[in-house]
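dumping this here before i forget
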Amino acid sequence: MIPGPFLLYLGHSDDEIGIKTSRGLAAFRPDDCVGEWRHDDCPLTLGLDRIDAAEARRRGARTLVLGIANAGGRLGADLIDDALLAIEAGMNVASGLHQRLHDEPRLVAAAQAAGVQLFDVREPPRDLPVGNGLARAGNRLLTVGTDCSVGKMYTTLALAGTLNARGIRADFRATGQTGILIAGSGVPLDAVVADFIAGAIEQLSPARDDDGWDMIEGQGSLFHPSFAGVSTGLLHGAQPRALVMCHDPSRAHMRGLPHYRLPDLRECVEANLSVARLTAPAVRMAGVSLNTARLDTDAARRLCAETADALGLPCTDPYRFGADPIIDELLQWSATPRSATSTPIMTASA
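structure:
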C-alpha cells in the first residue's frame, strides 16, 4: 500500500483528461488528499488547497502522487525537479507514468539519502501466466468503451458501490494506474506484455463461489487503433457475464486521433459482445454509461433517455445520476443460467 495522505500533482498540465489520476484520487479518496500542487501556468484545479511540497509535508502528506499523464508517459525535467523537492521535504513519490521513477538515478539517490520510497504503479507482477480460457465460476462485469478515457473506472466504481449498498458483495478489480492507487492493488494492464494480458486478468479475477461480483475496470477501446489490443485481452481474460458500454458524447473523434471517428454506439456494442463470446458465450450487455460532465442536467438526462430508447438498454451517468438503472437490469437477469443466450442485437440506431 502506498502511504497516505497524498499531495496531488498537476504541475504545468493544461489537459483536463491528462490529470485524470489526480482527479480520480480527489473524487474517490478525498480524505487522503491534503492539497494540489500546480504551477502558475496550470489553468486546472481539483478544488483542493493549492500548496507546495513543503506545506504539504507540514500538513501531514506522506506521498506526492504524480497524477498526470503525458504523451509517452515520460518523466520530464520539471517532473523530476518537483519530485526531488518532495523527496527533500520528506515525502515518498508515486507515479503511474510509463517511464519508471527507479530508472532516474537522481530520484533513486535522493530517495535513498532521505529514507523515503519510490512507487512505480505501472510495474506489473512477475511471472504472469498465459491465459487459458478455461471456464471459471463466478459473476464478473467488465466495463468497455467507445474510446479510451471515457469513464470506465468511474463507472466500475459506481456500479460496485451501488451493489455493495444493496448488500451484494462487489469487489473492484483495478487495471489502470488511477484505479490501482484508489484500490491499493490491481494490475497495470497497459504495462503487461501482450501475450500475458488475458492471463493477468484471469489471475486478477479468479473463480468465486458466492453470489457476489467482480467489477473489472476496462481499458482502451476495440475501435482505438492504439489501444485495441489491451481491450481484446481484457474481454477474453475477464470471461464477463455482463458488459457495460461507456461513452463520452462530447467527443468529436477518438482521443489523440482526429483522423479517426468515434464508433456508433450500436456498432461498438455488437463488436464487444462478439469478441467477449470467445470465452463467455452467454455474455450480455447490461447497460450504457454516459459521461455527461460537459452537459447541463436537463440535456444529460434527455440524452440518457434517448440512448436507452434507441438501444433498448438502461442508460445513465452512474457518477452523476446513480447506477441504479443498470444495476436493476443486471440483477433482473443475473440469476439466468450461463447457458442462456446473450442479449439480442438491438434494431434501433443510436
